[in-house]
Amino acid sequence: MANIKLSAEKLDELKAVCKSFNNDKGELINVLHKAQGIFGYLPAEVQEVIAKELNISVAHVYGVVSFYSFFTMLPKGEHPVSICLGTACYVRGAEKVIDEFKRLLNINVGETTPDGKFSLACLRCVGACGLAPVVLVGEKVYGRVAPEGVKDIVAEYAN
């Protein structure tokens, strides 16, 4: 994993988050959510600071980060694209939608475009089964997405 340089400003912000939870190890998940909001992901350097501030092992922090699918140790694109692979979405063609995103963005699931604009992920049921197949770009929901509609979604964010 590449070492990132934590700016003094972001480091102070991260320590302030830990302090806002009284540096309580029982608040680890809340601290991780806030930290991911600050950095966009949870690289090793951020996990080490959290471990130190909450007086817990880095292994414990890593265990929580790697267990919960919401947390990521890889940077996401400016526009994270997530395709639902829940049962309803899958049977209504989500796999073809994924293939079209992969083709248009020229990346695989779990990757980010070289310009940092888009990242591609799959997730389980988002609870919008009536709109299957569902695509999320950030927090915006697109329902009944067909492979032919993928180019319009990408174009919306390309500029």
TrEMBL record:
GO MF annotation list: 2 iron, 2 sulfur cluster binding; metal ion binding; oxidoreductase activity
A Pfam family assignment: 2Fe-2S_thioredx
Protein name according to UniProt: NADH:ubiquinone oxidoreductase 24 kD subunit
Entry annotated with the keyword Protein biosynthesis: no
Keywords: 2Fe-2S, Iron, Iron-sulfur, Metal-binding, Ubiquinone
Signal peptide positions on this chain: none
InterPro entries: NADP_DH_HndA-like (IPR028431), NuoE-like (IPR002023), NuoE_dom (IPR042128), NuoE_N (IPR041921), Thioredoxin-like_sf (IPR036249)
Species per Swiss-Prot/TrEMBL record: Lentimicrobium saccharophilum
Binding site for [2Fe-2S] cluster: 84, 89, 125, 129
